[in-house]
Amino acid sequence: MNNDLEWKQPALVGGLIVGIASALPGISALNCCFCGWALIGGAIAVKMTINESARPLQAGDGARIGLYAGVIAAVVFIVIATPIILSGFATDFSMRVMEGVANRLNNPELQDAMAAALAETNEMSAAQRLGASIPILLGQAIIQGGFTVLGGLLAIQLFEKRRDLPPPPPQY
Q1: What sign does the dihedral 82-87-93-95 (CA atoms) show?
Q2: Could you give the 3-state DSSP secondary structure of residue 3?
Q3: Residue 88 class from Cβ within 10 Å (0-12 exposed, 13-18 middle, 19+ buried)?
Q4: Reported pTM
Q5: Residues 81 and 69: beta-carbon distance below 8 Å
Q6: Maximal C-alpha separation, the chain
Q7: 85, CA 20 to 30 Å: which among 2, 36, 53, 91?
Q8: Which of 44, 53, 30 is nearest to 72 (CA)?
Q9: Is 63 in contact with 149 (CB distance < 8 Å)?
Q10: pLDDT tens-digit readout, 136-165
């Protein structure tokens, strides 16, 4: 990446948006729609960089800024999600939502399976919940990284209007 781009603060803002929103039960549901928070965070990081840049950004710039936002998001996500997992709140919340869905489907077998899963989850210690969640946490962090890159690429297409402008003269 060219040194003339101020990408650190935008990547931090985008990464914080993705990491925090993805870790919190309830609002993290937007990630069910093509990793929505990751797309938004990557796009915001690139849009902020476009607004501050003297030169037009290219697709490679958008991808790199999105990737940096994704790395920050992964760290923030894991740091915030770990205590939530240890507390059991996220697991209880998720299981209650799934139990509500099973009850609405009026399927006794599914309802029994959900009740058994809920009982098994309630018997897990915090360490067992964390151990069972590590692959999910890492997988989600990796997938979100890819979607922040995609968000950055989309932002270049949506917000960079200076494609045909000549580059500014070098500053000494």
Answers
A1: positive
A2: coil
A3: middle
A4: 0.79
A5: no
A6: 74
A7: 36
A8: 44
A9: yes
A10: 889 988 999 999 999 999 999 999 998 766
Q: 42: closest CA among 162, 160, 146, 159? A: 146
User: How does pLDDT run across 91-103, given as a tens digit for each residue?
Assistant: 667 777 777 777 7
Q: Given the structure tokens 């964390």, which residue do they identify?
A: 130
**What is the distance between the terminal CA atoms of the chain, rounded to a whole angstrom?**
19
Tokens at 18, concatenated? 């993705």
Yes or no: say if 28 and 88 are a contact pair by the CB < 8 Å rule. Answer: no
Residues in the chain, pLDDT under 70: 1-3, 90-92, 164-168
DSSP 31-81: GGTTSHHHHHHHHHHHHHHHHH-SSPPPHHHHHHHHHHHHHHHHHHHHHHH
